[in-house]
């Protein structure tokens, strides 16, 4: 229903009504004419109300639909009453339609069905009982009845003793109107903006009908009512307004019926307002059956209401208490409850002799989802993740969401080893999450900390969570995710460096939602070993012999074509995929080297490492394991590390490098001179090879200072027992010059561009420096 259409209908209806009201008000024509006008007008108004409510019902769904349907029934009841009344007056020509008559069955249906409609309309119900609203209505109606009874109605009653039923019926109308009006008014006080128009018009309609019904009861008692009386205007107006309320409701059909506003203070006491006066009148008025009935209704009504309120309060208290310990999004325990259980568990463990463990879980790529797909998507993912975590633990364990994408599990029964639970958790995160139609891979980093009953406890139970957190950071740092168990040396980890917030923002801006897709694809490419390698040769300058090859990663993207490292490494780096990528590259290189060996050549190869992975103490063994799987010696591998790893944790890096060296793996410093080179690490770290950055190599032919630096570095490497590699050698003259400096190896487009694995065994030796081969790429 458009606004214009609604306005049009309102204008037409109002005009017709004004004519009708003027006619009855002006007493035009004789009583007969007035009767006809009144009857026809009433039936027309009833018809309008029925049609509008039915249209609203048709157009809406669910509860709202049922509400409008109930209102249609209510209006139908009234229409039926009007039609029967008009039939008696106009067709049967009964002078004055008898009261009560069949029409009253219809009229009485109105308040009942309308009340049902109100209770169905989910307006203003903040989970509180609609029954209470109806009780409120009954209490107000009963109070008002008592007051009016004591002030004159009593006398009318005594006069009408003979037609008791007629009297009761005529009084029943205003009483039910008061109930309806009270319920509607209370709902109005709690309705939200979109719902207020409907409720206001509805209240006005019932108020007008109340006036007419009240007047009718009085006139009836004196036998002074006849059709065409000006009080008919109230009913007609009421019906028309009900019709309009339905149409307004239809217009605002998509008002979300969510949480209502809190009820106003006034609405809490207003229903009790007439009660004191009613109580006084009940006491001082002479006893009579109607008064007694009203008194009983009042007492039981108030009692029932008190009971309902007390029950509601109880449920609210339970809900509030429950919420204080629950994470509202996932329904898991929150930090407060988790710490409470943890404290309890550690206190109990001496007695029970059980080991208490905490797993700290952080989702590695969660921020990316939040930033690129929006918070609702992030929330959906968290709910899903919470469910998955729940499937990994026993019934007695506590799963909590500590905030953001951090979860924790408290394992008290010790039946399952916490590391086993950790592994299960890693497994359940293998399947992608589907949010907003995107497949998103999110992996957890998990830290485990345990405390056996015998362990010396010198700090509070919270330290167990702290230890689990540190282990989790260690897992995160390793870029492999997975499960790490807490060890005391983890205190060396600089937590702030694990998850730099600035990077996260930059990444989200850079990749957006397309980035997320690319990221999911990259994850798959890594997992399914879809990445390929090209190999660039390094030659011995003096002899021209092939000294080895460097593996450079490539990604043959199904839609975007061949991607170079710069196109996707940043994405991998910022999302914790580097560990997995390094491993994939390592495996692929080992496979390729195995194939070369099968063709009769053993060619040493170099693999680039992601510098922060030097924080991963298990890396050397993992690499050695991969080599062993491929049946290769550790000596054939060189790892290349750019010097920026110094920014990280040098102590751990040293430990990792020493370990690698001990295993027989060679170590090269990549891009030397491009960053903040520090001589101290040349002194302190076990390095075999220094690769001079091409920024220094390119200008040596005509820049004396560059030349001086290159010569000095070559000299330095030799004195330190390392070999020197010149990168980015793009022409023969440069190669020749480097040879005169005593540089050991050269690498670059001139010497040999990167080639595919299958071509590596066919690489020809480089002619000794200075001899330029025609046609060779320069
Ligand atoms: P890098 O380790 O310095 O590798 C050498 C890069 O220089 C390669 O680019 C290579 O194609 C290019 N290049 C070789 N000769 C010349 C030359 O004469 N002139 C010029 N201008 N460039 C030359 P690519 O393959 O695009 O790799 C870029 C960087 O990506 C690499 O720099 C390396 O830091 C990184 N990267 C490549 N593969 C991997 C990998 O598997 N793991 C990790 N962590 N990083 C990798
Ligand atoms: Ca390199
Ligand atoms: Ca390099």
Automatic annotation (TrEMBL):
Superkingdom field: Bacteria
Residue intervals of the GGDEF domain: 354-490
InterPro entries given in the database record: Cyclic-di-GMP_PDE-like, EAL_dom, EAL_sf, GGDEF_dom, Nucleotide_cyclase, Rev_trsase/Diguanyl_cyclase
Record-linked Pfam families: EAL, GGDEF
Keyword hit for Repressor: no
Gene3D superfamilies per record: 3.30.70.270, EAL domain
Keyword Transmembrane appears in the UniProt entry: yes
Transmembrane segments: 37-56, 68-87, 107-126, 133-152, 164-189, 201-221, 233-250, 262-284
Keywords on record: Membrane, Transmembrane, Transmembrane helix
Record-linked PROSITE patterns: EAL, GGDEF
An annotated Gene Ontology molecular function: cyclic-guanylate-specific phosphodiesterase activity
Domain EAL as annotated: residue spans: 515-768
NCBIfam families for this protein: GGDEF
UniProt name for this protein: GGDEF-domain containing protein
Species: Mycolicibacterium madagascariense
High-level lineage: Bacteria, Bacillati, Actinomycetota, Actinomycetes, Mycobacteriales
């Amino acid at each position: 229903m458009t606004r214009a259409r609604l306005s049009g209908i309102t204008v037409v209806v109002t005009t017709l009504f004004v004519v009708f009201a003027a006619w009855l008000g002006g007493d035009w024509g004789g009583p007969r004419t007035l009767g006809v006008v009144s009857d026809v007008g009433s039936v027309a108004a009833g018809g309008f109300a029925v049609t509008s409510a039915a249209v609203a019902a048709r157009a809406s769904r669910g509860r709202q639909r049922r509400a409008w349907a109930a209102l249609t029934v209510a209006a139908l009841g009234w229409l039926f009453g009007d039609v029967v009344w008009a039939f008696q007056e106009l067709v049967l020509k009964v002078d004055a339609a008898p009261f009560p008559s069949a029409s009253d069955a219809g009229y009485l249906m109105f308040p009942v069905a309308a009340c049902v409609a109100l209770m169905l309309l989910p307006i203003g119900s903040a989970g509180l009982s609609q029954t209470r609203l109806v009780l409120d209505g009954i209490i107000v109606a009963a109070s008002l009845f008592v007051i009016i009874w004591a002030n004159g109605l009593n006398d009318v009653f005594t006069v009408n003793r003979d037609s008791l039923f007629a009297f009761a019926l005529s009084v029943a109308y205003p009483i039910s109107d008061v109930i309806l009006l009270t319920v509607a008014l209370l709902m109005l006080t709690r309705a939200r903006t979109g719902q207020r128009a409907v409720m206001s018009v509805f209240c006005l309609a019932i108020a007008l009908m109340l006036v007419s019904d009240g007047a009718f009861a009085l006139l009836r008692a004196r036998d002074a009512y006849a059709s065409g009386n000006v009080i008919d205007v109230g009913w007609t107006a009421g019906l028309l307004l009900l019709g309009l309320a339905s149409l307004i409701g239809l217009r605002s059909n998509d008002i979300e019926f969510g949480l209502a506003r809190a009820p106003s203070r006034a609405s809490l006491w207003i229903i009790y307002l007439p009660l004191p006066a009613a109580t006084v009148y009940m006491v001082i008025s002479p006893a009579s059956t109607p008064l007694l009935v009203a008194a009983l209704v009042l007492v039981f009504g108030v009692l029932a209401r008190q009971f309902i309120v007390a029950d509601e309060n109880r449920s609210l208290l339970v809900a509030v208490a429950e919420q204080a310990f629950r994470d509202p999004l996932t329904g898991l325990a929150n930090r407060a409850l988790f710490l409470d259980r943890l404290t309890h568990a550690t206190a109990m463990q001496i007695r029970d002799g059980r080991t208490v463990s905490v797993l700290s879980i952080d989702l590695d790529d969660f921020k990316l989802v939040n930033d690129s797909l929006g918070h609702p998507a992030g929330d959906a993912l968290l709910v899903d993740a919470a469910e998955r975590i729940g499937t990994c633990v026993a019934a007695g364990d506590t799963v909590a969401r500590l905030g953001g994408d951090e979860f924790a599990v408290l394992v008290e029964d010790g039946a399952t080893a916490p590391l086993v639970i950790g592994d299960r958790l890693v497994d359940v995160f293998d399947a992608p999450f589907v949010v907003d139609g995107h497949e998103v891979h999110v992996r957890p980093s998990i830290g485990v900390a345990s405390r056996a009953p015998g362990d010396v406890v010198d700090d509070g139970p919270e330290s167990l969570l702290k230890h689990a957190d540190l282990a989790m950071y260690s897992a995160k740092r390793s870029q492999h995710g997975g499960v790490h168990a807490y060890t005391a040396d983890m205190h060396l980890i600089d937590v702030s460096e694990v998850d730099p917030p600035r990077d996260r923002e930059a990444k989200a801006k850079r990749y957006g939602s397309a980035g997320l897709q690319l990221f999911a694809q990259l994850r798959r490419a890594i997992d399914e070993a879809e990445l390929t390698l090209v190999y660039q040769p390094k030659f011995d300058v003096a002899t021209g012999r092939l000294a080895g090859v460097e593996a450079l990663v490539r990604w043959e993207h199904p839609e975007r074509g061949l991607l170079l490292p710069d196109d996707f490494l940043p994405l991998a780096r910022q999302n914790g995929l580097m560990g997995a990528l390094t491993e994939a590259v390592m495996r692929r290189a080992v496979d390729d080297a195995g194939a070369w060996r099968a063709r009769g050549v053993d060619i040493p190869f170099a693999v680039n490492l992601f510098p922060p992975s030097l924080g991963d103490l298990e890396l050397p063994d993992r690499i050695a394991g991969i080599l062993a799987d491929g049946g290769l010696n550790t000596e054939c591998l060189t790892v290349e590390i750019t010097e920026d790893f110094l920014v990280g944790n040098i102590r751990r890096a040293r430990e990792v490098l020493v370990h690698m060296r001990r295993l027989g793996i060679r170590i090269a410093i990549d891009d030397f001179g491009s960053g903040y080179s520090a001589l101290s690490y040349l002194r302190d770290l076990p390095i075999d090879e220094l690769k001079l950055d091409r920024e220094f190599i390119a200008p040596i032919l005509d820049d004396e200072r560059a030349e001086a630096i290159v010569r000095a570095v070559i000299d330095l490497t030799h004195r330190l027992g390392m070999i020197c590699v010149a990168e980015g050698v793009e022409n023969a003259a440069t190669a020749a010059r480097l040879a005169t400096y005593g540089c050991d190896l050269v690498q670059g487009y001139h010497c040999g561009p990167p080639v595919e694995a299958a071509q590596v065994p066919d690489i020809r030796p480089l002619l000794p420096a200075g001899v330029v081969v025609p046609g060779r790429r320069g």
